[in-house]
Amino acid sequence: MKKELWYVAGLHFECTECGKCCSGPEEGVIWITKPEIELAAEFLKIPVEQFKKQYLKRAGLRTTIIEQSSTKDCIFLREVKGKKQCMIYPVRPNQCRTWPFWASNLTSPNTWNEALRSCPGINRGKLYNFEEIQKIKKTLKWWKDKK
Fold this sequence. Notes:
Layout: E1 11-13, H1 34-44, H2 48-55, E2 56-59, E3 62-65, E4 77-80, E5 83-86, H3 94-97, H4 109-116, E6 122-128, H5 130-138
Antiparallel strand pairs: 1-6, 2-3, 4-5
Helix pairs in contact: 1-2
């Protein structure tokens, strides 16, 4: 018999545009794939090579978006009219799209509530049902749905 996941009744989440998921003070990684790099460069209307040189770094075999050196905030996070906004939001990487429904946050109610410490949108707003959460968790190539 298959064990039911603890969030079978769904979870509430509403982005508050606080930018904490994209902010330091700790250093993090923001994984980005080749297709996402191409989409982001196109969105910013710059050549892919310029985008790579200006905004990315290698981390082992993968590529990550760089962070502001002083704050460790994502380089694309900006404050606009008192709200934190992503400058590449329509083409943001999958890692950003699937927050907070990451496997690490969904291990247990404790890990979900631990994520609440850095994300005030957890446990409020829209109820995501189990099927929606599973679909978000399994999303890898979001750009294929956009074509």
